[in-house]
Amino acid sequence: MSDTMTRPKLRLDHVTKEFAAPRTGLRTVAVSDVSLEIQAGDFVCIVGPSGCGKTTVMNMIAGLDKPSSGTIEIDGAPITGPGADRGVMFQDYALFPWLTVRDNIGFGLRNGTPGRGMAANDVEERISKHIELVRLGGAETKYPHQISGGMRQRVALARLLANGPDVLLMDEPLGALDAQTRLILQAELLRIWGETAPREERKTAVFITHDIAEAVFLSDSVVVMSSHPGRIRAVLPIDLPRPRDEHVRAHPRFAQLSEEIWELIRDEAYRAIA
Amino acid sequence: MSATLALSSAGRRTPDMLRAIALPITLLVAWQLWAMTLPDDTRAPSPASVVAAFVRLCASGNLPISLAQSFGRVLVGFAIGLVLGVSLGTLMGASRAVRRNIEPIIESFRPIAPMAVLPIAILWFGTGTPAGLSIVGYAAFFPMLLSTAQGVSRTDRNLVQAARTMGVSRFRILAKVIVPAALPSILLGARLGMGVAWTAIIAAELAVGAKSGGGSSGGIGQMMFIFYSYSIDMNGIVVCMIVVGVVALFIDRLFRIAERHLIPWRQ
User: Fold this and answer.
1) Would you call A108 and B183 a contact, using CB atoms and an 8 Å cutoff?
2) Is A130 within 8 Å of chain B by CB?
């Protein structure tokens, strides 16, 4: 018991990732010596300028990429490849264009490990439940190209959650949305993540963004990364009360935390556009 | 909304069609007038005599039977090319190692026209249907192979990764992600393959007809050979040419309709 209390859900230990260019063999360091512990039930945002290796870190946790050196553990066991215990929401949603909304949400349950051992009825029921959860009733038979960006984002979220992962990995899932939709979906995301539920029932979430306000609004802690090579600059605990609603954005502490994060990445952000 | 659309396109259709058929009709009339100026004993075909020959060939059953024979060969040969082309194309598209090994072989065979393979086909299979099938299969194989390989290799990598993070096995990913993603390319390859298959069977039957001296292998191509070397029936040859063209057009349209139904997510 005490072991599970102290052991982090995810542990990255001196993780470095190098990529070799296909033809020249030139090596670039995408992520350098990253160590990080994420507790079960935490909502963690990773912010940083483009090219800081945010996506690479997430891909390694997902098991889609292997670290060049260092180890990544989930519940104390090393990650060797992708698995449905770590659900991923991709930046471009990665919806299957040939499947309807319903079939997209049910893809993992019907074809992958999440639905193994489940009766067909239960699978369908679970899909319906998640369609309701993201309020997509009525759009079930539509194809992804027939629905709006905000709806597509909700399909991807429903698919992620329907598979029942322990860890939610989200790569700038709201990046393509307009500002208003984005604010609404941030609040909705917290509701679905389980903000109002007791801590033990919440999922562990790793969320990549380059929107500082978004990171502060969502997170229990914010990991600030810098680029060339990608390193962790700082980890800031976000001590704003939960559940959070729109009013938290007006909280003086909200502005203070946003300012602190901006201080950390400002120089690099300016250098990037200079 | 859809009613007004249908109306407006119907309203535009009539003059469009008139414009489209104006030139063919003018040419047909000119052809008929020119043929009428020639002495009666020339063999030059005219629209009227071609229509008469068409009616005669249909009534005797020769044309429908030959057509069915050729078409049957195309279907079977095409199916062979489809199975081989799509399965090998999928392997080529999915695995760089397979592609590296197979591509040089494919690329050295591809410029060899189906007709250039015919001598070997006849020596191996004789002048009957098997020779025809092998030519059709050979012709249809390449477009389907290359199109499938391209479609598979261009599958959005994110979709494959998404499936992997949902605990989907490699085999299921192939069946449920890669093949559907490549389906538009596969269908395009099938349409092109069917087109060359139809061209190839006519040429093969013509050549086999020559080899067997108008024997009993049948098909539209051989019918043309008989008109050409025995009865010297220009009208019959023209009928065959037109039928071959119309059938090709019909097949192409059929594939386009099938594409629309099999790929409803593509607008």
Assistant:
1) no
2) no
Residues β-bridged to residue A234: A224
| % of chain B residues with pLDDT over 90 | 51
Query: In the block, which residue shows the tokens 């479609």?
Result: B151
Report the C-alpha gap between B163 and A84 in whole angstroms: 9
- The partner residue sitting opposite A62, judged by closest CB among B156, B165, B264, is B165
> Does A99 fall in a domain?
no
Domain count, chain A: 1
Chain A's closest residue to B263, CA to CA, is A98
Q: Residue with structure tokens 């192939």? A: B174
Pick from A234, A236, A231: nearest CA to A220 = A236
pLDDT tens for residues B62-74?
Answer: 899 999 989 999 9
ipTM of predicted assembly, 2 dp: 0.88
B→A contacts (Cβ < 8 Å), by residue, are 156, 158-159, 161-168, 172, 176-177, 180-181, 183, 263-267
Answer whether A108 sits within 8 Å of B168, measured CB to CB: yes
- Domain range for A241: 2-85+166-273
Q: pLDDT band at B83, cuts 50/70/90?
A: very high
Give the model confidence (pLDDT) of A91-122 as tens digits.
889 999 999 999 999 999 999 999 999 999 99
State whether B159 and A96 contact (CB < 8 Å): yes
Structural domain spans, chain B:
47-262
Distances (CA, A) of B256 to A213, B85, B250, B251: 50, 20, 10, 9
In a domain, A147, yes or no: no
The model's pTM: 0.81
Per CATH, the homologous superfamily of domain B47-262 is: MetI-like (1.10.3720.10)
**Which of A216-230, A258-272, B30-44, B165-179 is predicted with the least confidence, judged by mean pLDDT?**
B30-44
For A84, the closest of B156, B161, B167 (CB atoms) is: B167
E strands, chain B, are none
- What pLDDT score does A70 carry? 96
Per DSSP bridges, beta strands A221-226 and A43-47 are parallel
Kindly give, in sequence order, each residue whose CB lies less than 8 Å from that of residue A57, ignoring residues fewer than 6 positions away. Answer: A12, A15, A31, A34, A46, A225, A230
> What distance in Å separates residue B155's CA from the closest CA in chain A?
11
Q: Which of A94, A97, A114 sits opposite B167 (nearest CB)?
A: A114
CATH of the domain at A265: 3.40.50.300
**Nearest-CA distance A206 → chain B (Å):** 15
How close does chain B come to A83, measured CA to CA in Å? 5
Asked if residue A90 is part of any domain, the answer here is no
Mean pLDDT across A214-235: 94
* Inter-chain CB proximity B176 and A86 less than 8 Å: no
Would the pLDDT of A177 be above 90?
A: no
